[in-house]
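Proteins fold reproducibly. Next comes a concrete instance:

***
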Amino acid sequence: MASLVDSPTVSAEHGAVADLHRREIGRLFNEVPELYDRVRPSYPDELFTDLAAITGMDERSSVLEVGCGTGQATRSLAAFGCSVTAVEPGAELAALARQRIATFGNVKVETSTFEEWDDRGRRFDVLAAASAWHWVDPSMGWKRAHEVLYPGAWMALLGNILVCRPGEPEVYAETADLHERFSPGNPGWGHPPLEDDVRTTGEGWGLVDNPGGLFGPTTVRWYPTVQWFNGDGFADLLRSTSLYRRLGREVREPLLDAVAERIRTRMGDRVSRRYLSVLRVGQRAERTQGELETPIFEHINLHGSYPFVRPGLAGDLRPLRDPADTDEQ
């Protein structure tokens, strides 16, 4: 999908547009919290076991979860006995998360975007974001994450990447004509990548913006997972994703009805949705050169001299990216 701005430099106005676009898409999930909770893929237990082993996370740890949604990953984090503060901007999603984790006394859900969240001076041993970090403003997210973590603490991104395997039936391949009929030329339509191809892109932080020197090298682990659906269930899954929720209802619902019917009549009413769940973990780096104290300059005029702080102007502006251009939605 094309980026919002193709020029190598962007203005503050463009930044505001991108931020508005990101927030509007993120709010789409808040419209269907129960559906989202019921059909979206969770994460394998092995992923959380590895996360704890890498970070040393245990009952003494404090964990910040950014974009907890309905609490799918939150429950797995809380099971380690650690203190979890979960931040979720969608009021309906946050309310459902509170219901889902009500049996845990070590979890608190706070309704806010990460960018606007009041940390009240709290610091954490681990920051985790499950299929959520691409919704955070990249101009603020990494720096804020670095600030709210203790020295030597850990950043963890969890995701589910849709993939396919050669020779296996795949729903989009069987319904591409329907997608083109109801929403022709949609740049979001396309076949999932092959699982083996995705595994070759395993370094770094994935398709989100690079944090620069704020976090050290990443450890990346992959976990093959699969969901099974009948036609109606698969249509509900698509109904919960940002790509389909951005369609007008008059387009989305006839399209999904047709997809469900195609699965019933041509695919035996049983189809798979294959993912590679991924864990990316990196340790908070020491203060970088850009974080050192702002230099003090001296101004001299006819009346004498006085010190002043000169704002840092180093660095280039980056082109904006459509937040939907990610591997984790």
The first helix runs from residue 12 to 30. The radius of gyration is 22 Å.
